[in-house]
Write a structure and sequence with these properties.
alpha+beta; globular; Rossmann fold; OB fold (Dihydrolipoamide Acetyltransferase, E2P); 20 strands; five-stranded antiparallel beta sheet; 2 domains; disordered C terminus
Amino acid sequence: MTRLALDGLLKSYGDTLAVRDVSLDIAPGEVVCLLGPSGCGKSTTLRIAAGVERQSGGRVLIDGDVVSDAERHEPPEKRSIGLMFQDFALFPHLRVLDNVAFGLTGHNRGERMRIAGEYLDRVDMADHAEKYPHELSGGEQQRVALARALAPKPRVMLMDEPFSGLDNRLRDEVRDAALSVLKQEEAAVLLVTHDPEEALRMADRIALMRDGKIEQIGAPYHIYNNPKDRAAAAFFSDLNVIHGVVRSRQTDTPFGLFLTPGLVDDADVEIIVRPQHLRIDLDEGQRPESSARTGVAAPGTVQRARFMGSESLIEVTMDHDGSVLRATVPGVFTPATGERVWLSLKRESCHLFPCAAQSKVRSPFVHEDGTPP
C-alpha cells in the first residue's frame, strides 16, 4: 500500500525549474530520504508534499486520494501530516506538555493532556512535562517537537533537516530515538537532508536529487555500492580517481587491466575507488601477488600521514603520473613523509565511468547486484 505518492511534480519560479518531474511512492512505516546538495529541490519537494507550496504540475496523493493537482489543493491542516524542522518551532510561553497537546483538536482538555503525556513518555521526556522550552537542551527540544508532531497520529511525517542543529553527540542519540518511534507509528516518512551519513543511518530508501530531479533511488546499500555516476559516488565519501583510455574493450592502468565492455576504443574513463578500499604496503617484498581481485600493486611516495581518531589517512604521490591518492587504514598507521609504499585496490569495490564529456556512453563496471563483469 502506498501512503504518500508524488506524481510527476514540477515547480517553477519564473524561468527557473526548481523541481523536475519528481515521482515517489512511500509506504506506511517506510522512511524515504531526499538527499542532495543545497539548491537541488529537495526542500521545495517537501513543501509541496506538505501543501505549503503548490506545484506547477503533477499531483500529490495520500492513501490514494488526490490532495493537490491542477483542480484542487488541500491546505496542510487537511492532509493528516506531521511536520518537523530544524528550528523546533516550540511555543516559548507554553509548558512542554501544553506544546505537545496544542495540535490535538477534537478532544477535551483531559484527553489532550493524557495523549500528550503518552507521547512525551515515548520520547523519554515525561519527566520534563512541566518545564518550558528554554529550560531544555537542543536535543530535548527536538524530542518534544517529535512528540508534538506525532501526537495527532499523522498518516505522513515530513522532516526537513530536523537534526542538523544538534551537535554530533546529540544528533546520533536523537535521530535513533526518533527512528524508533517513527517506525512504531507506521507513518510514511519523507526526510530531507544534505547529510549522507544521516540518510544511510535512517532511510529504508534514499532518493538522490540533483538539479531538481531524482537521479537515483534505492536501498542505502545499493545507492552506496552501485552509484549511477561519479557525482553520486562522491556524495557519500571522498574518492580517488584513476584515469585511463579504452583499448580493445579494456583499460590498462598501473593497477592492472580493467574490463570496459560498454565503451569504444579511445574513450577516456575514470576508475573510482574510495580511500578505505586501497591497501598500502611499506615493504616491496610484502607487496600482494597480482590477482583478479587486487590487480597489480603500484609504487608511490608518502606525502603526508595523519591519525584521524579511529583511522589514519595516508596521502601518496604515485610514480606513474604524480597524482595523489588517499588511503585510510584502521587505527594508527603514520609512515614518514618520503617513505616508499605500494598501493593495491579492491577491484570489486571500484566503479568505472566515462569522463564527464562522454557521460552518455553506457559503462557499468559493476552489475546491478554489485558483482564485477
